[in-house]
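quick one
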Amino acid sequence: RKNQLSSFKNQTTTSSDGKHPILAANIGTPDDLTAAIENGAEGIGLFRTEFLYMDSDQLPTEDEQFSAYKDVLQKMKGKPVIMRTADIGGDKDLPYLDTPKEANPFLGYRAIRMSLDRTDIFKVQLRALLRASAFGDLSVMFPMITTINELKRAKNILEQQRQQLISADVAVGHIKIGIMVEVPAAAILADQFANEVDFMSIGTNDLIQYVMAADRGNKRVSYLYQPYNPAVLRLIKSIIDACHENGIPAYMCGEMAGDQTAIPILFGMGLNEFSMSATSILKSRALIKGLDSREMVTLANRTVSLASTSEQVVHYVHQALEAE
Ligand code: PEP
Ligand code: MG
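structure w/ phosphoenolpyruvate:
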């Protein structure tokens, strides 16, 4: 089966009726990048840059970050790469930042909230990203965006840094800008956010925990962590629709994007890019090769209009796949 799958490595992803969703990889470390390339990733849909901060006992310098980002872009040889600004906080604490303990870290000082507070740290990262953008196809996205004002502030700071580099005669490329949709408030206002960005990427790992009010790391409530819950699926569909109605593509970079039961539904919803761990890419490409997009549109519509439980959704998916 491994050998069979490896024949999919250098192919584009094509459904049985000729649609081409993009299969990209999530990466953190340089090792993940190797795996992404070996498994035929068509791009990087999520580079978790916080790994640079966590693997160190002090803040990484602008030059350290620049060379890490440039390296990823060069190794991807012009394929699209989405780098997420640091998602620190929540369950990812930096000992050297000495931030106070919080009662609800997942609802607290984390990701873009920290970046907009510690703009000194944020600016260093943005400058490194801007300098790296001259070496490949770079998109930057902001994690945990909740309000339009946060997004506007983040974009302004990025633009400010870009102007400063240009004035200093430093080469910068064109950067596409996106947000992660992982907070329900952003999901609900997706049509408004769509006017401010080039793309959105749905972060289901967090979005599910916030929609279901169930800590993603707490085993005692893990029964509520349901990717196929119709409430989650309806919200995801509304985000994808809002993107398309406003002329931008919809991506996903949570674990759900590589889930073999979820993929037929998400494909039917018209998701443009699935970003997953490298080891899921080839089997997902094989799965999509057997799917007809019109059948999957019907499946997606059935799940959001008829299902009231996760079990029903899984049942619909099995039925649809058997019919293929
Ligand atoms: C997510 O929340 O779905 C996501 C991709 O980000 P992380 O898992 O790093 O929080
Ligand atoms: Mg997240």
